[in-house]
Design goal:
Three copies of one chain form a homotrimer.
Chain A lengths: L7 H6 L10 H4 L1 H12 L4 E5 L8 E7 L2 E7 L5 E5 L14 E3 L3 E2 L6 E2 L5 E3 L16 E7 L2 E5 L8 H12 L7 E11 L3 H8 L5 H4 L19 H23 L7 E3 L7 E6 L30 E6 L3 E5 L4 E10 L2 E11 L10 H26 L15 H19 L1
Antiparallel strand pairs in A: 1-10, 2-3, 2-5, 3-4, 4-9, 6-7, 7-8, 9-10, 11-17, 12-13, 13-14, 14-15, 15-16, 16-17
Helix pairs in contact in A: 3-9, 5-8, 5-9
Chain lengths: 416, 416, 416
């Protein structure tokens, strides 16, 4: 009634580099829907890992805001993805997150689709009914060494293969397809999905917020750049450790150097292998491997942690013994789902090769801490007193790259 | 902000016959409000049965979306209906669903209205206060052989009497006004009210979804038309049973043939007496009467089930021993209230003449199954992947008539 | 889609004096936001009392709709108020309602502000970072003899001092700053904040709704004017009691006469000292003081109750032994927070000088009764049948003044 809310194009155009976004980006239902349309329906979205649907007939459902997707492994072991909705009366097809089926049968009137999406049976339809025009609507799907991405656009961004070519060799040694899911955890984050992403894209808050995580990781590996004499000594030590780690990796033919394309590609990403503290083996409370059975064909425990990030919604940590993947899905303008998945070698036996609480302790605690911080930010940015504030150029440079990518892709979406 | 939602007139105009409605009809708050304004405030809405307010001073309140109505039986045994809101400060007058009162007294400042709606007392008002201008605002009310309908429009559709003239003789033998309410059940349906209505208007889903209901009813009676040799034999058997039932009814002077005006009248309706399976007596688990005391002056148990439907919000099943009525009231864009009422003869004694769990078993189970299916449909139609799908011409013809009636009445409402 | 909602300026312009407001003022999200912008961000809002932040470093947070404010007592005992949001990433600074701090430290990245709002420390920021430009954003704050008011506008209404000059002598004898908070109670009112205010601004409903409160107070003191012979006798008795009370007050130099500027000032207010029934000492179940230790330097118990109201959101009752203050904060279009605070002399000892349940019994019960009535009104005004109704000119004259003030200030806000 007194609507003076600036419209989206204006808000995008006036965004100041190096500053946090204006409040409507974190609260406005119309921008939430625009995010779903222009970001989540047009880019490659990480949705899960191949071990979740290892066998023919395995299906998984994933809701990306108002986009309901089902990913299936067909009888030829190919991945297929579809809109998870019947072509008849629109009923949701697969309810469970994971299921195993012969065909995909609608629970309402039993319309029956093959794992290739073709409509195989529809009762009571007239003779001239064209079943071939009522197959499930396809969604693009790709696997990057076992990490499953989907794209809901008619034409998916064509730079996925290029990312896969670059990043594949980093990830491949960890053998995701020979892993099993040891644990999964869903958290409803009390803030807009971008607050969760921004929280992930810096370690400025780590020293105060994450006592468990900082036993193993160096905040410096994520852009943290403290000031002062002690800081310089620490930075030098960290650089030496990186050099040492990368040299050891090179000996084994494992790529480790930083590659960063967060803001200069449609499918933005970043990867780097980073050293860990003390024993240097894994992101655990004692910095040692949590699983005796190493991943892939690895024999060296001290490989630090391979970090792999994608825009807009994922990050992943690969150690010699286990992998942790994170996916963020918008729920409402002010909530998001954070899905965390812990993977170990498929032959590892719980209680023998690994203790589940030890495996998950660090990120279980860290997720809860981050979720609380996201809530603090959400509580503030929705108030009238909030104004965009300045990012630390060094320490929050990758947050800035997330925002820059987001603004650019939203503008491209509106233009397209 | 990127608002490209088609407006209501455009959505109505582009609706394709024989196809499900577009998603906004099931999700959009603005269409929800238009439904309340153009459908629920302008048509005859079924709200309950006379036995609910049998005595002078009995009142019932019913909320039809944002329309709060109270229906009263006055001292002359006439039905009266009013907006359930005080003319002073707007407080809700009758809170309970059923009550018995001398006058209607506002709980806020004790303004007091007679059962005729006249303001009888208002404390502290000045001498020139015109009480006669502050009576309760009237709502049209009619009883069709004991089924109570209200209309919130200033001028109610004038075809109610015609429907009553046609349908009255079908219903009258079941003697609603000599019944009592044996049980009532409110379910919050997890979808837009139209999904509940569409679910009711076909039995395509019955064989798979309703094991209890299909012990007695024939899906063929509601348009179900399977294909194949066995289907033909079954159809022939069903036609023979209809012929037998209608002949027996004719002997007793009870009308039974189909009358269908679902889409060609403002007050759309359909009725038909249909045979039941096996014992053929009632919609019970054993297909026999659930109440020893038959309704009205009936002496024959095997009268099948009289089906009576009205647009936009009701259906009713009349058997020789009991009646089940159903009313649907919108709550929010994506929820609705389904109110089910079981009636038996007023002289029937629970535990002697009928067992309540046996009486209610079939529709209690069927309602829950339908509610789950409505939820599946709602879960799908709100996703970006949903597209309108084709109705089966034979089996879902009456769903199509519901949609056609709805589109037509919405367009008439916008034009009016 | 069929949007025919009148816009705010039109609704304001067509408001009829002496009638309740139209429905959108109690339900519409856009008007709710306009209320927050034009009423709550531009006027003096009562938020609490000085004893809540008695010591240096004491802070309190208060949320006025989407306005998050923190009020602090600095090291010089001055009151300071700020937006409760960090200048870096927008995180909420003070979470608890009350806290005691050395500095104000953001929980996200530890940006640290002094109690004067200046940014004292921000890690990792570049050398050219201008800390002096990133202090907390100030909010106006004033104390009226211990009642704390804030104003979020850049320029606060300049008539606060005038109100303080007039009302201060009434309040000062009760010595708020020498009080302590004995009890506080937050109720989520089930209606728009204006329904809570309107409920407070008349006692027409008191006789039927408030058996506990009317043991001590006279509804006549709040404009109640019943008709009839008995009423005249009662009115005469009440006038005599007022005369007696005011004479006793005058002897002690305590001002007591009515001053009413509810609708003719930006900072609208009203005050009057009113007699109480029976023992005439306090708003308690037995009309006697609930606390043996009298307030300030008072020695007389029979001082009735000083009533002090402010627009838009507070009322206060001062007795010789205790004070009850009430603040209303909008939450959503159809809910509000009612915060009630009971104060006694800081030296009074619970269990010795006062019994807490006796102290709070009357207003605890009255608040619950009023909250239920607000719910009845909210239930009615959101229905389609609601139409504005007439206020009783005598008995609801101060409700009309609340509405007149509100309409005037909204129009001024839109014009400004």
């Amino acid at each position: 009634m007194t609507d003076s809310t600036p419209k989206l194009p204006g808000l995008l155009a006036r965004r100041t580099r190096g500053m946090t976004l204006e409040a409507p980006f974190y609260t406005d239902p119309a921008i939430h829907h625009a995010d779903l349309d222009l970001i989540f329906a047009r880019h490659w979205i990480f949705v899960g890992v191949e071990p979740e649907i290892a066998e023919p007939g395995d299906v998984m459902s994933v809701d990306i805001g108002n986009h309901a997707v089902l990913v299936a492994r067909d009888d030829d072991m190919e991945l297929r993805a579809f809109h998870n909705v019947c072509r008849h009366r629109g009923a949701r097809l697969i309810e469970a997150r994971h299921d195993s089926v012969g065909n995909i049968v609608c629970p309402y009137h039993q319309w029956t689709y093959g794992l290739d999406g073709a409509l195989r049976h529809a009762g009571c339809m007239p003779r001239d009914f064209q079943a071939e025009r009522h197959g499930l609507r396809h969604v693009h799907v790709r696997s990057l060494e076992g990490l499953i991405f989907v794209c809901l656009a008619e034409e998916a961004p064509d730079d996925f293969e290029d990312m896969a070519r670059i990043v594949g060799p980093y990830i491949a040694p960890h053998g995701i397809t020979r892993c099993k899911v040891a644990h999964t955890e869903d958290i409803v984050e009390p803030g807009n999905w971008k607050l969760t992403m921004e929280n992930n894209r810096e370690c400025y808050h780590c020293s105060a917020a994450h006592p468990e995580l900082t036993r193993s990781i160096f905040a410096e590996g994520f852009g943290f750049a403290p000031v002062g004499a002690a800081a310089e000594a620490q930075a030098a030590r960290f650089q030496a450790m990186i050099g040492d780690l990368h040299a050891r990796c090179q000996l084994r033919g494992i790529p480790s150097g930083e590659i960063e394309h967060l803001a200069d590609r449609i499918t933005g990403f970043r990867t780097e292998r980073l050293p860990l503290e003390d024993a240097g083996e894994s992101e655990t409370l004692d910095t040692r491997v949590a699983c005796k059975k190493l991943l892939g064909d690895l024999s060296e425990t001290r490989l630090g942690a391979l970090s792999f990030w994608t825009q807009p919604n994922s990050w992943h940590h690969f150690m010699s013994d286990h992998i942790v993947t994170f996916a963020v899905f918008p729920l409402t303008p002010e909530t998001a789902l954070l899905r965390t998945t812990w993977l170990v070698h498929q032959d590892a036996v719980e209680g023998v090769d690994y203790d589940l609480s030890n495996l998950t302790a660090v990120w279980h605690a860290t997720n809860a801490q981050d979720s609380a911080l996201v809530g603090k930010a959400a509580d503030g940015v929705r108030t009238s007193g909030y104004r965009p504030g300045p990012y630390s150029a060094d320490t929050e440079g990758l947050v800035e790259k997330f925002c820059a990518w987001y603004i650019d892709r939203m503008q491209a979406g509106l233009a397209g």
